[in-house]
Amino acid sequence: MKKPIEIPACKDCMLGCQSIFGSLSAEELDRLTFDKNCHSYKKGTTIFHEGNRIHNFYCINSGIIKMYKTGIEGKEQIVSFAKAGDIIGYRSILSKEVACTTAKTIEEVVVCSIPGENLFKLIEQNSKFSMELMQLACKELGEANQFLTDIAQKSVRERLAEVLIKLKLFFSVNAEGFLKVSLTRDELASLVGTSTESVIRLLSEFKSDNLIELQGRLIKILNEEKLRKLSSYY
Fold it and tell me: How many other CB atoms are there within 10 angstroms of residue 129's CB atom?
């Protein structure tokens, strides 16, 4: 379910988060603000579905969205997350193909929907933005390739250790040292590419080894160096 909200100005949003739109001029930011629509979505709301054609791309103003593909028997495979300042759906706009993933909120979010033609105009008119967009696409492709390599070559234990390190890098931690993201065990299993039972068992082992602390869904990394060595992630 979505509800309209007061549209935040893009130039004001740039002050609070890192975004690819940071290279735009004041005039270009004003144009984005004029053309976009913004909505608040409750936790568990789907923004767009894999396989559907989309005509807008989206910028996250606040909150967290998970991007996933649907596999056999409807099983989710999370491929990435998006937080404040990130854009999603842009590759489908550029390729003029259907969405290759589903975007669903994992907490309440505010999302700005921007017409696809605005993206093409920015690419044509702003060379720095074009370069940064290309670098973003290449980075995401590299991460997808690395995931395939990890699935093929690393054990589930190694992959879980790597996922925890990456979650800390992406979301950082709160004042108590817990990751600033609350994921279900099913979602962690989807990230790692294994069963929920395996993730529950390994988290318990990590806790017993004093690598992490658990507080419900919240996770605190106690020994990052050992997790990095375990995952071979540096």
Answer: 20
- Nearest Cα residue to 184 out of 196, 174, 193: 196
91 close to 137: Cβ distance less than 8 angstroms:
yes
Cα 42-45-49 angle, rounded to 5 deg: 155
Q: What is the mean pLDDT of the chain?
A: 91
- Per the structure block, which two tokens stand in for 20? 């690819």
- What's the CA gap between 4 and 176, in Å, rounded? 34
Domains of the chain from N-terminus onward: 2-126 (2.60.120.10), 154-231 (1.10.10.10)
Strand 37-41 versus strand 2-4 pairing type: antiparallel
Helix ranges restricted to H, 60-195 = 90-95, 116-125, 127-153, 156-171, 185-192
Q: Where are the alpha helices (DSSP H) in 38-96?
A: 90-95
129: left (phi over 0), alpha (psi -120 to 50) or beta: alpha
Please state whether the predicted TM-score (pTM) of the whole model is above 0.85.
Answer: yes
Lowest-confidence range among 59-68, 76-85, 146-155, 216-225?
146-155
Nearest Cα neighbor of 183 from 160, 205, 206 is 160
Contact between 205 and 158 under an 8 Å Cβ cutoff? The reply is no
